[in-house]
Amino acid sequence: MKLLVINGPNLNMLGIREPDIYGRSTYADLMAMIEAHAKKLGAQIECFQSNHEGAIVDKLQEAYFNGVDGIVINPAAYTHTSVAIADALKAIRIPTVEVHISKVDEREAFRRVSYVRDIAVSTISGKGFAGYLEAMDLLVKKGYES
Ligand code: DQA
Predict the structure, then answer these.
(1) Residue 70, SS3?
(2) Which protein residue's CA is at the shortest distance from atom 8 of ligand 1?
(3) What is the pTM for the complete model shown?
(4) What is the largest CA-CA distance in the chain?
(5) DSSP state of 114
(6) CB of 10 closer than 6 A to ligand 1?
(7) pLDDT at residue 146 tops 90
(8) Would you give the end-to-end CA distance of the chain in angstroms?
(9) Quick check: is 22 catalytic?
């Protein structure tokens, strides 16, 4: 099982950015947690972070040609704006779980809009870094309704 984890803009700044919302653990800490969990699940993992919308679209298209079986994506601010990322997910049709560290539905109104939610097999928000691990479990055990 090949999994791809994609993190969008400013998530490389975890630990520095708004620690009251996103916590004090860093992006490197998140990567270490994800890699250890993948090992436990016996899954192959690739992690990708970009601050650029087009780079994320390119990575999603590449996933199609590379036979990726499942995607965990935190599109960050692009969640609320990006038709291009939503269209890429629709094009590749790889089971995808949308993850948000914070409780997006309890923050500003603009964060309640997600262009990805309807395409994702599941959305996990407000569970911190643990949400990524839960998303990986769902994809590996196919614990979602398709
Ligand atoms: C986020 C929530 C988004 O609204 C925000 O723009 C982010 C992070 C989260 O993980 O909680 O950058 O996706």
Answers:
(1) strand
(2) 76
(3) 0.97
(4) 39
(5) -
(6) yes
(7) no
(8) 18
(9) yes
